[in-house]
TrEMBL record:
Residue span, HTH tetR-type domain: 18-78
Protein name as annotated: TetR/AcrR family transcriptional regulator
Stored InterPro entries: Homeodomain-like_sf, HTH-type_TetR-like_transc_reg, HTH_TetR, Tet_transcr_reg_TetR-rel_C_sf, TetR_C
Keyword Ribonucleoprotein set for record: no
Superkingdom to which the source organism belongs: Bacteria
Lineage, highest ranks first: Bacteria, Bacillati, Actinomycetota, Actinomycetes, Pseudonocardiales
Signal peptide: none
Keyword terms, alphabetized: DNA-binding, Transcription, Transcription regulation
Organism name: Pseudonocardia ailaonensis
Regions recorded as binding DNA: 41-60
Record's keyword annotation contains Transcription: yes
Length: 205
């Protein structure tokens, strides 16, 4: 008997069901928006999604991981703009904080409020939600430094915290996302001056 072809795929267990995963995420969003984190259990999420707790835990090991995944699913994808212009890149980058509907804002505000009292949730939220936009902004600024648009001595560590801090504060205290007009003003009147922006010429030495 000839040996099995090396190209043949070995069984890998039950295939993932995107529709079920979406149902679980939708149920998580709905229950947390209506009841809050403390009032929502994995059992209730599973029941509303039409599945069992085991199916939830196969995909997300903890309630915290599930909630963070639900928040991320409602957010715009973090990208690193590369238009060849710092100002254009910053305006593209800041749209991450102005996107999302009211339900997304309520869910993220709930998560941020709970994170102040829950170390595990705080770290998970920082890793999945807080750090990716900051890393993208650092990449944008790094390219601008290489092009000579930004003074290498500019306070980058401070700059990367400005818009996320304002956006998250507005979510927690007002339950709404950063509006596009305010976001654009922050880019032009705060970030660019703070970075000592010099479009089209090398920074002063």
């Amino acid at each position: 008997m000839s040996p099995p072809s090396s190209d043949a795929a070995a069984p890998t267990g039950r295939p993932r069901d995107p529709a079920l995963e979406q149902a679980i995420l939708d149920a998580t969003v709905d229950l947390i928006v209506r009841r809050g984190m403390a009032g929502t259990t994995v059992a209730e999420i599973a029941r509303q999604a039409g599945t069992g707790k085991a199916a939830v835990y196969r995909r997300w090991p903890t309630k915290t991981a599930l909630v963070v995944a639900a928040v991320r699913a409602l957010q715009a994808e973090v990208t690193v703009p590369d238009n060849g212009s710092l100002r254009e890149d910053l305006h593209d980058w800041v749209r991450h904080f102005t996107s999302g509907d009211e339900k997304a804002a309520v869910l993220l505000a709930t998560l941020l409020g709970e994170a102040s009292r829950d170390t595990e949730l705080r770290e998970a939220a920082a890793a999945a939600i807080g750090r990716p936009p900051a890393a993208a902004l650092r990449a944008v600024i790094g390219r601008a430094v290489e092009r000579g648009e930004v003074d290498p001595a500019a306070p980058v560590d401070v700059v990367v915290e400005i818009i996320p801090s304002i956006a998250f504060r507005r979510l927690v205290t007002e339950g709404r996302t950063l509006d596009p007009v305010t976001a654009a003003a922050l880019v032009d009147q705060v970030l660019l001056p703070a970075l000592r922006h010099h479009p089209g010429r090398p920074p002063a030495r």
